[in-house]
Amino acid sequence: MDHLDIPALTRAAGVVRLPGSKSISNRVLLLAALAQGETEVRDLLDSEDTQHMLRGLRQLGTEWQRGKEYSYRVKGNAGCFPLKQAAVYLGNAGTAFRPLTAVLALSGGHYILTGVERMHQRPIRDLVDGLQQIGAAVRYVDKEGYPPLEIFPASIDVSVPIKVRGDVSSQFLTALLMALPLTGKTSVIEITTEMISKPYIEITLNLMARFGVRVEREGWARFTIPGGQRYISPGVIHVEGDASSASYFLAAGAAGGGPVRVDGVGRDSIQGDVAFADALTSMGARIEMGPNWIQARAPESGKLKAFDLDCNHIPDAAMTLAVAALFADGPCTLRNIASWRVKETDRIAAMATELRKLGATVEESVDCLKIFPPHSSLLTPHASFATYDDHRMAMCLSLAALGNVPVRILDPGCVAKTFPEYFDCFAEVTAPVIAIDGPSASGKGTVAAEVAAELGYHYLDSGALYRLVALAAKQAGVAWDDDSGVAAIAAALPAEFEGDRILLSGVDVTEAIRTEDISVGSSKVGALPAVRAALLARQHAYRRWPGLVAEGRDMGSVVFPWADLKVFLTASAEVRAERRYKQLISKGLPASMAVLLQSLQERDRRDAARSLAPLQKGADAELLDTNDLTIGQAVAAILGWSKDRLSH
């Protein structure tokens, strides 16, 4: 796909489960490969960068296996890699290229490291200079100071301190820190200039300690790695959610109302980019934080405050601040961001160019960006953003749509570098939602489908999901009141929706799930907490642009509590029984009014008495009594409410 069009957005609210941190993922993979013993790495980020590292490790003789979901088992090499000759391609993965350069330079082998064209434009001289100080034999294959690199066996001498600049890239220091324990001797690194991106070094030191290697530090000027240490597997290690990726959703919550909550990173994180939440707080956003989650809402005033911040400690997340500045009440300044120049692209120049397309005035210098938001409350619409093959440019710029303007993202696939599902997740917290709830046979399915068709929105028939679970449980011989058994079926439900057809394990069950027996079963399984939890994420995934009409039990109270419009559709039990009777008769199915009425009344009592989310109209829902309304009239009423709610 060469572009992605994002519609004008006015609100963001929801929950996002973050992918694993790229910085932690690639560090952990390399340490696991160098360690003694086998390491199980859980919640690893699945992205281009981690795949490059995994392939590179295998090319160097490391054995690893993928387990369930995002877990990997890595067999450590108890030191250097077994293969002493290899050519390794690492794409544009700096978190793989830099540390592998240092490790291979101390491994006594002959290696060639290459990447994409952009990687060959990213400077690496300071790392190579540091390695050459201790005798490493590293040669530039093409342009002096840049990859590709060729590495030869060499005699390493760490008897004198290695001097390294700290103001270019923290990845150079990380690479040396991770590699030097392989010498077995005490080694010292001295930083000759101010250290940038310090939180990333903290991540490195923390993870090295998890693998049994301690580093003595004198401020940010001198690092000593005592000799005689070796990496030892911790057995199992979990990868935190990516704090840099959290910034996009937290900013969306701050600019788009909220609340938006990210799960997977929080107060206990080892990542410095959690400090992005502090930056949002300085802009007036309302931030809440737990051990493993952060939530953001817009300021009480609704308008973000201007800022002037030193962003040295959050270089990646600071990019999100540059776009958040569009929603501020005055000029915003990001300082000490010189490292942007040597990332996947020259991010200072790129960001300035793209923000101007929205009507902002932008001033740039060597290490600073000053952004003047457009004078009017509206951004320039229909901007087409170049992304420079830079995942963070694409993700940041998507936030501009929250200015109620449609935008186009060119080359959206570049997000695969760190967050392949980003745009799906962004849609899950920004696409408008109309939630339609109500008792059984109130007509909510028919009405919701027509509302979705009128608006061009996606449609979720959540009742069909519960009916499918009931049918699948019956076919498997699992009792409908078996909480764990039915939940296991719900979690792996082999269901597909093809137009008007509903398939279960490839079999058309459109009519089979509409029988009265399965209707009763769906009510029973829907009352089980574990089943509801198992289906929640699946229902959230239906939220996509341009919007979603979701009908079914608890749509506005549990599944989409932040829905833009909530409607509680109702009618008397007698009217609903008559409608169901006519529906069944029209399909040639046997039906009894008395039986249907009794069944509906029993189901109403059961649903109202549920301990978990009893069926009732929410205080913020519109009541639509359809006793005397046609389908068309009910649809018209909801469209009227939606026009009012979704236009601002």
Features:
alpha/beta, UDP-n-acetylglucosamine1-carboxyvinyl-transferase, Chain, 5-stranded parallel β-sheet, 4-stranded mixed β-sheet, 31 strands, 20% strand, globular
Name of the CATH homologous superfamily of the largest domain: Enolpyruvate transferase domain
Largest sheet: 5 strands, parallel
Give the tally of β-strands. Answer: 31
Overall residue-averaged pLDDT value = 92
Poorly predicted ranges: none
DSSP strand content: 15-25%
Topology (elements, then pairings):
Layout: E1 3-6, E2 12-17, H1 22-34, E3 38-42, H2 48-59, E4 63-66, E5 72-75, E6 85-89, H3 94-105, E7 110-114, H4 125-133, E8 137-140, E9 149-152, E10 162-164, H5 170-179, E11 187-191, H6 198-210, E12 216-218, E13 222-225, E14 236-238, H7 243-255, E15 257-263, H8 276-282, E16 286-290, E17 293-297, E18 308-310, H9 318-324, E19 332-335, H10 347-356, E20 361-364, E21 368-372, E22 383-385, H11 391-398, E23 407-410, H12 422-430, E24 433-437, H13 444-455, E25 458-461, H14 462-476, H15 483-491, E26 495-498, E27 501-504, E28 507-508, H16 516-525, H17 529-540, E29 548-551, H18 555-559, E30 565-570, H19 573-586, H20 593-608, E31 622-625, H21 631-645
Parallel strand pairs: 2-15, 3-14, 6-7, 10-11, 18-19, 22-23, 24-29, 24-30, 25-29, 30-31
Antiparallel strand pairs: 1-23, 3-5, 4-5, 7-9, 8-9, 11-13, 12-13, 15-17, 16-17, 19-21, 20-21, 26-27, 27-28
Helix pairs in contact: 1-2, 1-3, 1-6, 2-3, 3-5, 4-5, 5-6, 9-11, 13-21, 14-15, 14-16, 15-17, 19-20
